[in-house]
């Protein structure tokens, strides 16, 4: 699915990622954990193609294509989705209107005909149920006046609508109460299939009680320093990140 | 020789114009001529023309050369239509019933404005629309401009007591048209009357369009005007509304899309002379390329005009590094029990919003288009006429696909 090899990336001349390597296959859920400043959000940003970040070394291959050569929208067309840590409020642009445009541009890029209004509305009804998103929210302006939980549910709703191959969830759990967390996790789990994969970036283990990862990676100082299964997340929750830091420095 | 040296820019302009065939009273004629002889041609030194340069008027040849109007069309369906072709009333396709087009003498009005004086002396069409009942008759005036010429209509709109009416002033110019449009519109909204005016300025790329509306509102009346400068070399609108009676409502909305070297200037004045009135103004626009925009909105609240609610807002989005905006909202309040606000913003599209939309698969172009449509959509929501709303919506879309 995606192969990230020895990626170095900086922003405004400051190196954040210092040789990150990660391979994710179809059907897998990978969790990336790490202390503040380790480079978690930078990873999400370079995957989505934020222009402020410069990749100076390494490569990223997504479904056989050189991801770094693609524009942000081309990455979406290829099946990449980023759930934002801070979803943007866009006054005046209705959620459904924008999603129909997005779906049609993705279909157009694949040489497919636009979705019919009827099929689209059926899809909205079906997918908004997954995240228990009120159909009124679906037709309101994108994230405008949404609560923190509604914004995150809207991210997962968009993900469900766009049906990506690879979903990157950037700290989707931040600012969520336990009910919202459960709903968001349920949404992510219900979209899981043998053909897609997700990278779940999180600071806390809490989310991983609900979205059970196949692999847990610890990102520290711009590199993945430790990989394990879900038990590693529990260990981190218990002991914090200091022992990783010490282990890395000793190593 | 002396004569040449003392020629003003107005004199040069007047040589290219043909005196009006409409009957004007001696009094108005001499007042207008006097105004023009002593008037200073607009320069930066005159406050109301500080950011708008009309020197280009004298570069227009106005020789009647023709250019094709490919997409001439009326905006509304099933309404009374009057066609004014290259400044002159056209009997073809027009329905003049109940509309005054022949005159023993034009009304004795001449404003203290040199361009109004020019309009009077060189008027090419004079028309009076009167609404007498509550049926909300819709009249569309379609100005088809296919020749490079002087288009000087003088329009009188009267909405009688308790009547309701809608006027659409639809200016459509051929793409490369280079005309001088100079319009004076006089509006009387009587007691309990309700009048809506929608003005579309879709002018040719070299056209200069100077328009003035003089509006008087009597007690308990509602007046709404929506202005859409969509294209043209230079567009200047002077909207002056006197709210003379109490319990009036006044709505002023504008949306503009400027690109190339277009210049657009909206000057509006609403003068609250009496108490218990409401006015709301919203002008929004997007400015691309090297286009320039000016907004000057004045709200007066006179000494005894208590309990006035007046709101004014102008917002601009610059789509290029080279576009510019001069926006000046002004409030002058002499009463002490009023609620007034005004504001002006100029900025760029939100990069974070563009990135968000692109991350969902929208191209940069459609992301920007969606954001601009949402931005201008706030103005379109204020437009109660569906035909006008959908036409302007389509024009905004075309503006971006061109």
Short description:
The complex is a heterodimer of chains A (251) and B (402). With 251 residues, chain A is an alpha/beta fold. Chain A is built from 9 helices and 12 strands.
> Largest sheet of chain A at a glance?
6 strands, mixed
**Helical content of chain A, roughly?**
25-40%
Gap from first CA to last CA of chain A: 31 Å
Strand arrangement, largest sheet of chain A?
Answer: 6-9-10-3-11-12
Let me know the number of strands of chain B: 20
Instruction: Quickly count the helices of chain B.
Output: 7
Number of helices of chain A: 9
Structural class given helices, strands, pairing of chain A? alpha/beta
CATH level-1 class of one domain in chain A: Alpha Beta
**Order of H and E elements of chain B:** HHHEEEHEEEEEEEEEEEEEEEEEHHH
Report on this model:
The complex is a heterodimer of chains A (251) and B (402). In chain A, 39% of the residues lie in helices and 29% in strands. With 251 residues, chain A is α/β, with parallel strands linked by helices. Chain A has a domain at 2-90 and 165-250: P-loop containing nucleotide triphosphate hydrolases (Rossmann fold, 3-Layer(aba) Sandwich). In chain A, the strands form three sheets. Chain A has a six-stranded mixed beta sheet, sandwiched between helices. A four-stranded antiparallel beta sheet of chain A has the order 2-1-4-5. The longest helix of chain A is centred in the middle third of the chain and has 15 residues, at 95-109. Chain A is globular, with a radius of gyration of 18 Å. The two termini of chain A are 31 Å apart. Chain B has one domain (2-348). Helices cover 18% and strands 41% of the residues of chain B. In chain B, helix 3 (26-38) crosses helix 4 (114-121). The termini of chain B are far apart. The interface between A and B is medium-sized, with 30 and 21 residues.
Descriptors:
heterodimer; A: about 250 residues; alpha/beta; Rossmann fold; six-stranded mixed beta sheet; four-stranded antiparallel beta sheet; 12 strands; globular; B: about 400 residues; ten-stranded mixed beta sheet; 7 helices; 20 strands; about 20% helix
């Amino acid at each position: 699915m995606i192969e990230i090899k020895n990626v170095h990336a900086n922003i405004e001349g400051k190196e954040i990622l210092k040789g990150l390597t990660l391979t994710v296959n179809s059907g897998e859920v990978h969790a990336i954990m790490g202390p503040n400043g380790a480079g978690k959000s930078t990873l999400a940003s370079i995957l989505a193609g934020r222009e402020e970040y410069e990749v100076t070394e390494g490569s990223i291959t997504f479904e056989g294509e050189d991801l770094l050569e693609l524009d942000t929208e081309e990455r979406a067309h290829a099946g990449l989705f980023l759930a934002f840590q801070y979803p943007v409020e866009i006054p005046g642009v209705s959620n459904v209107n924008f999603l129909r445009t997005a779906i049609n541009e993705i279909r157009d890029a694949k040489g497919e005909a636009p979705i019919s209004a009827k099929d689209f509305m059926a899809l909205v009804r079906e997918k908004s149920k997954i995240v228990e998103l009120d159909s009124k929210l679906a037709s309101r302006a994108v994230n405008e006046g949404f609560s923190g939980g509604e914004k995150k549910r809207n991210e997962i709703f968009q993900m469900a609508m766009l049906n990506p191959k690879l979903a990157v969830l950037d700290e989707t759990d931040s600012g969520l109460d336990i009910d919202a967390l459960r709903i968001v996790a349920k949404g992510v789990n219900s979209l899981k299939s043998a053909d897609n994969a997700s990278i779940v970036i999180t600071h806390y283990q809490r989310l991983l009680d609900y979205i059970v990862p196949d692999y847990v990676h610890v990102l520290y100082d711009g590199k993945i320093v430790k990989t394990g299964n879900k038990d590693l997340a529990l260990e981190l929750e218990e002991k914090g990140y200091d022992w990783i830091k010490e282990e890395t420095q000793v190593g | 020789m002396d004569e040449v040296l003392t020629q003003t820019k107005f004199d040069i302009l007047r040589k290219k114009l043909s005196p009006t065939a409409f009957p004007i009273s001696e009094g108005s004629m001499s007042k207008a001529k006097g105004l023009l002889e002593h008037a200073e041609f607009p320069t930066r030194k005159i406050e109301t023309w500080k950011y708008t340069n009309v020197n280009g008027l004298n570069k227009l040849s106005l020789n009647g050369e023709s250019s094709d109007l490919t997409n001439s069309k009326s905006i509304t369906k099933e309404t009374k239509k009057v066609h004014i072709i290259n400044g002159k009333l056209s009997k073809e396709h027009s329905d003049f019933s109940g509309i005054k087009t022949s005159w023993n003498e034009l009304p004795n009005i001449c404003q203290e404005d040199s361009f109004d004086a020019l309009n009077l002396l060189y008027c090419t069409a004079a028309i009076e629309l009167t609404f007498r009942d509550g049926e909300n008759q819709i009249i569309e005036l379609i100005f088809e401009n296919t020749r490079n010429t002087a288009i000087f209509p003088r329009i009188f709109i009267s909405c009688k007591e308790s009547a309701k009416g809608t006027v659409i002033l639809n200016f459509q110019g051929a793409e490369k048209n280079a005309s001088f449009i100079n319009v004076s519109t006089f509006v009387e909204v009587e007691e309990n009357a309700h009048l809506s005016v929608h003005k579309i300025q879709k002018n040719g790329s070299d056209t200069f369009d100077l328009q003035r509306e003089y509006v008087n509102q009597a007690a308990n009346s509602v007046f709404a005007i929506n202005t859409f400068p969509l294209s043209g070399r230079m567009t200047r609108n002077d909207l002056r509304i006197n709210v003379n009676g109490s319990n009036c409502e006044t709505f002023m909305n504008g949306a503009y899309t400027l690109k190339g070297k277009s210049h657009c200037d909206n000057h509006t004045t609403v003068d609250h002379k009496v108490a218990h009135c409401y006015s709301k103004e919203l002008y929004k626009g997007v400015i691309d390329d090297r286009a320039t925009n000016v907004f000057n909105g004045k709200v007066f609240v006179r000494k005894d005009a208590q309990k006035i609610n007046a709101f004014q807002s102008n917002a601009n989005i610059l789509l290029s590094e080279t576009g510019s905006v001069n926006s000046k909202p002004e409030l002058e309040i002499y009463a002490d029990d009023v609620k007034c606000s005004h504001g002006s913003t100029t900025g760029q599209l939100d990069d974070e919003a563009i990135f968000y939309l692109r991350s969902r698969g929208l191209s940069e172009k459609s992301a920007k288009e969606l954001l601009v449509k949402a931005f201008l959509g706030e103005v379109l929501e204020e437009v109660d006429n569906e035909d006008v709303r959908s036409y302007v919506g389509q024009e905004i879309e075309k503006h971006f696909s061109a």
